[in-house]
Amino acid sequence: MSKKKIVIEPNPILRKKSNILEKVDGELRKLMDDMLETMYDAPGIGLAAVQIGVLKRVIVIDIAKGDEKKNPLFLVNPEITFRSSKTSTYEEGCLSLPSHFAEVERPAECHLNFIDYNGKKKDLKASGLLATCIQHEVDHLDGILFIDHISKLKRDMIIKKLIKSKKELDKVIL
Length: 174
Ligand code: ZN
Fold this sequence. Notes:
Blueprint (H helix, E strand, L loop, with lengths): L25 H16 L4 E3 L9 E4 L11 E11 L3 E6 L9 E6 L1 E7 L5 E7 H14 L10 H22 L1
Antiparallel strand pairs: 1-2, 2-3, 3-6, 4-5, 6-7
The structure holds zinc ion.
The site of zinc ion has 5 residues, from helix 2.
């Protein structure tokens, strides 16, 4: 496994649609292992392949808290088949938008079809934090960020701050 660099917004790749995968092979499993290591290291509870610059429909998630046993979930070609009309609101952040958070309202429950780490077709019913996390990550595969779900005013403010902090980072590197 090796840790990868996380792509930070604004970056046009984060707005691209990721591609469907034909099969789960060793190469894809290596990508998933790298994604998991990168996510744990960050640390975060979800990561889409596009966030390390790979336009493939793959997500890793682990919502286990600090002391709890690790419980990684690997989702290949995830497809949300149901979204509840009941909604819930979480304070969301994103590894591609470091230090920025906003309340996002999403369906409280969702159902999902996907292919797992071993190439098996699976389905899943999710609620609570897991449902929010899945929807946030599936959004990434379609070039959507959590800030797209908040007001334009707040979104523009966050992007402005990200551009500023990126420029400051460049100054330090130079
Ligand atoms: Zn994210």
